[in-house]
Design goal:
- It comes from Nonomuraea angiospora.
- Keywords: Sugar transport, Transport.
- The protein has two domains: about 200 residues, 3-Layer(aba) Sandwich (D-Maltodextrin-Binding Protein, domain 2); about 200 residues, 3-Layer(aba) Sandwich (D-Maltodextrin-Binding Protein, domain 2).
- Helix content is about 45%, strand content about 15%.
- The chain is built from 18 helices and eleven strands.
- Strands 1, 2, 3, 4, 7, 8, 9, 10 and 11 form a nine-stranded mixed sheet that branches. It has a two-stranded antiparallel sheet with strand order 5-6.
- It starts with 16 loop residues before the first strand and ends with a helix.
- The N terminus is likely disordered.
Amino acid sequence: MRRRAIFGTSLAVVAAMGLSACGGGGDGGDGGSKTVRITLANHVWTDNIKKALPEFEKQTGLKAEITQLGEDQLSDQYNVKLNAGSSDIDVMMYRPLQEGRLFAKNKYLADLSEQVKANKDWDFGDFQSGPVEATTYEGKPVGVPIITEQEVLYYRKDLLAKAGLSAPPKTLDELKAAAAKIKASEPDVAGFVARTGKSPAVTQFSSFLYSFGGDFVDGSGKAAVNSDAAKQAYAFYGGLIKDSGPANVSTDMGWPEAMAIFTQGKAAFYTEANSLYKNATDPAKSKVSDNVGFAPFPAGPGGSKPYNIPSWALGVNSSSENTANAWKFIEWATGKAQTLAQQKSGVPGARTSVWADPEGTSTFPKDLVEAIAASTKDGVGHDRPLVVKVAESREIVGQPIVDAITGKDAAAAADTANAAFQKFLDDEAK
């Protein structure tokens, strides 16, 4: 499932447009073109950065020419232009966990090792380790994260109080017990809801997998979805939905369907990306907006290990003939000032300093800020297998989730999936 744009971003395609403001100051860089051609996705981050472009152009004397596209159109353009080695894209907004490995393997993304070290004030060390891990390929930074997501626990404060629970669950065992208790006492309310579709569920299941001590591959790169930890995680996630989930639960729910159940007041607990929180807290979208709370992802046998990932990043097209000026744009757009401005508008960033700044968290619910802080501390930098053919891999590793939800043998399903996933990894390595 394609990761959705967050915070109500329009999915309509916006025609390519050149944006410029008064020039002045700066010499335009290293002899490259003074026009930096930047391809961005439809997203609130993009809308915000466009409004701030006059500042960039005034500071640098460069002109920013923006092409803004919906996700499908963005992918189509990249497929055509990057495969052809086109130089008419300088800066590219991309999804590190969806196409990042493919782009890096095919050498579409420039190595930014020297650039990230050049400006100490910009401070690459300020970026959280999980998102940096996801924008690194073979030890080299190939992108800079701009938007992050972590998995947190959404819950209903009123239902917890009614059940005599003084605080949200801190462990997965406590979550299981609380969900069962509420479902038993509230016949029309599920104790727990989450994504159930084979592919969409993989990302949210990943935090359960890590918190049980597992991962999609082991330290040697071999398939590991039938490890003891993985089998326990599949059984737990599937069993939680089977036993405490909605009646006659569907096995093709993505986040819109799962979120709808929660916001209609039909579930007590819900694990999901923090970036979607306004769907639950906005009275126009949620019947339970006044009673929604947030908590860190509950700890399993391996601790609390939610994902902390960049949903989008900026990179430099390796075929660009204007790489120095392309980096000037990235340096400005990902600097502390712009990251703070973006975060205040509701776009969660990857800089530690911005999360530590009260101004940077002023627009977020207090308990969500605390949950995010816990997630970024020990977060894992991927929420799906780190492979080239991501969609195919998700279909494979997601099958045991569906099998566990429907009451089949999760361990046997994990063994079958592991054999298929190992063959997939072997084929990709050829």
